[in-house]
Amino acid sequence: MAVVVAAEATALLAAAAWYAFELVSGSPVLSFWGAVFTLGLLLAFSAWLYAVGHFLYRGFRWTRAAALVAQLFVLTIGFPTLTSGLVLAGLAMVVPAVTALVLLFHGSVIAYASRTGGAPPAL
Questions:
Q1: Cα(49)–Cα(38) distance, rounded to whole angstroms?
Q2: Which of 23, 67, 88, 122 is the most exposed place for a label (fewest CB within 10 A)?
Q3: 8 Å CB contact between 96 and 8
């Protein structure tokens, strides 16, 4: 499960790099600062997904909710992309998101990701 989230974060980071390249190379935009803000959002969401993947791998409970929200965001963009004719891009978003959703509710993931953030008891 953590591998799927980390792969999504890597894909998002690659998209941010491509977006930054297009921005620096002089691709026309309506608002330069709006484009910089979008780039910042892409980088922040990628960093957030890396953190979710890391702590999911370590078994923290809160990561399941964070991963669920991320997958719902991806599906929100993936389905319209898929239905608008960009089939490969849509499938590249929808398939990992659905896979992650199925794995999030798998019994072994639920059992593994049950750790809370506190320190172990002293006695």
A1: 16
A2: 122
A3: yes
Q: Which two tokens stand for residue 93?
A: 């978003």
Residue in the block written with tokens 């750790």: 115
Per-residue model confidence as pLDDT tens digits over 4-33: 999 999 999 999 999 999 989 988 888 889
pLDDT surpasses 80 at 122: no
At 99-109, the pLDDT tens digits run 999 999 988 88
DSSP string, the chain: -HHHHHHHHHHHHHHHHHHHHHHHTT---S-HHHHHHHHHHHHHHHHHHHHHHHHHHTTBTHHHHHHHHHHHHHHHHHHHHHHTT-HHHHHHHHHHHHHHHHHHTSHHHHHHS-B-SSPPP--
Look at residue 119 and tell me whether its pLDDT is greater than 80: no
